[in-house]
Amino acid sequence: MTTFSMYSASVPVFKQILNSLHAILDKAEAHAAEKKIDPTALLTDRLFPDMLPFTRQIQIACDFAKGAAARLGGQEVPSYEDQEVSFADLKARIAKTLAYLDSVPQASIEGSEGRAITTGSGEKTKHFVGQTYLFHYALPHFYFHATTAYDILRHNGVEIGKKDFIGSY
């Protein structure tokens, strides 16, 4: 009989998609160079005027990954300044997030299904238990922003597909 693992349902999942986003950024950078597109055009593009731009989608995906690992692990959520303006900056942010995920002890996340989790402040405060937080809040938000980043690049002609998004596991 296998037992459920909060760690296995979180950190490896975040790492898989973040590694994929890192590889996709390489393809986007190469696409911009090959097509002689100013990289800023891709970095600032959005799917619709009321949506956040590509760079912000990557930042938020990283934020949800590190935030979930920290909260589930009972740690303080590290704060990253949102100052990325290039593909290299975004790759560095992903690498920093991956390094943080590797630093969170697996044992601190295991058994966090019932841990009290609070996010936001003021009117935006939300209260969860660990499993609900992971499955109904952190993962959906993470996937939304990762997918939106992928979609922006695909919409702009970057030759990426489902295998690029899913990556290896």
UniProtKB/TrEMBL annotation:
Task: List the InterPro entries.
Answer: DinB/YfiT-like, DUF1993
- Domain of life, per lineage: Bacteria
Q: What is this protein called?
A: DUF1993 family protein
